[in-house]
Amino acid sequence: MAAAGTQLGRLLGGLWFLAALLGRPGATAAAAGQPAAPAVAAVDGRRAVAATGEDFVCATLDWWPPDKCDYGTCAWGRAGLLNLDLSNKVLLNAVRAFSPPLLLRLGGSLQDKVMYGYGAGRPCAPFVRNASEMHGFSQGCLPLRRWDDLNAFFRRSGAKVVFGLNALNGRVPLPDGSMGGPWDYTNAASLIRYTANKGYRIHGWELGNELSGTGVGARVGADQYAADVIALKALVDDVYRSEPSKPLVVAPGGFFDQAWFTELVVKTGPDLLSVVTHHVYNLGPGRDTHLIDKILDPSTLDGMVSTFSDLQRLLKSTGTSAVAWVGEAGGAYNSGRHLVTDAFVFSFWFLDQLGMAARFDTKSYCRQSLVGGNYGLLNTTTFQPNPDYYSALLWHRLMGTKVLAVTFSGTNKIRAYAHCARDSESLCC
Ligand SMILES: *[C@@H]1O[C@H](CO)[C@@H](O)[C@H](O)[C@H]1NC(C)=O
Ligand SMILES: *[C@@H]1O[C@H](CO)[C@@H](O)[C@H](O)[C@H]1NC(C)=O
């Protein structure tokens, strides 16, 4: 990331220009004794072409327990929501460094197997490994005391929280292989009421994890999902009826599927759903030994353009007031890959994703994960920042909400994005 030249900066009233170099362009030409072709970046500062939210940079916390393992390594340690050491000062300060506050999305695969705060007689037990169950674990339970502790941490650290609810509760398998029947929201309703009564601030309630389209582990039809989102909205409106600003209603937290997402957006109506969330794992499985080649390959990176632009077009054409977020993006699934997705090289993917998402009007982008797996912004055991933590923090501090159009001619190994600077927005655009 480099600041634009002073002159250009003055001209535009301040902007930050992000240019990532994938490998060394011109290396081949130079080796052949020829000068590298000139490259020109042009930033159109006359108007913004898209806008992010104030809290564009977001990170996730997940439910995975210490015995979650992929390809023989168990990369989650005590970083899951039920185990995280909430008294750790490094963790606290890492979140506090974000101002305006860091958005945290709580969720992940096991989210649709979590029950909340059983009391009296019904044990509130953690997840137990069981290979014959979906995602390899039994149902787990979030004790209300743990929920209190998590909320105390969110208050101390200043984080804004989006909580992903269990959307599989009460479903039954249908003949077509999907999970159906209406969402049983009794347990979710008691969590939401408890949370509101305690005065814990929740920025958004999200319904479900990766149940859209063909689903991961399980899927739910879009027609049923729309009915369930409507039920969640009614619940949120009821619980927060005396509050001037209600939490956002967020869905579906899954992979983009044009037909499924369209049906959800159309059937929930124009103003009910606040945020449409989708997930990004465009690099394939973490066990891939060629992950670095993909991260540095412009065509792999460009493979996500169609998803972002299709979703943007869908929201525009349906006339919904809902905005798009990336609710979870780890790049490489099954917990990422050590020394790749927790190393410097991953910023070439991460910063490009932030730039691309913003360019297509994404309002927030949640990196999987703040901590845990092999793709944490923080080290799983020490909470010391990994390189991408600084990429996230720099973006948060420098890049404003107004996105400018950039054209770049020359090598396709340089990726360029520009925003008005965060601290001089009134002067720009
Ligand atoms: C594992 O899950 C299967 C399928 O739900 C169940 O029948 C079995 O009893 C479980 N095993 C243990 C040890 O709980
Ligand atoms: C995290 O810290 C541990 C302990 O210092 C270290 O062994 C490990 O390599 C670190 N992980 C990363 C991704 O740097």
TrEMBL record:
Protein task: Endoglycosidase which is a cell surface and extracellular matrix-degrading enzyme. Cleaves heparan sulfate proteoglycans (HSPGs) into heparan sulfate side chains and core proteoglycans.
Encoding gene per record: LOC100285720
Compartments it resides in: Lysosome membrane; Secreted
PANTHER family for this protein: HEPARANASE-RELATED, OS06G0179000 PROTEIN
Name recorded for this polypeptide: Heparanase-like protein 3
Signal peptide per UniProt: 1-29
GO cellular component, one term: extracellular region
Source organism of this protein record: Zea mays (Maize)
Keywords in alphabetical order: Glycoprotein, Hydrolase, Lysosome, Membrane, Secreted, Signal
InterPro entries in the cross-refs: GH, Glyco_hydro_79
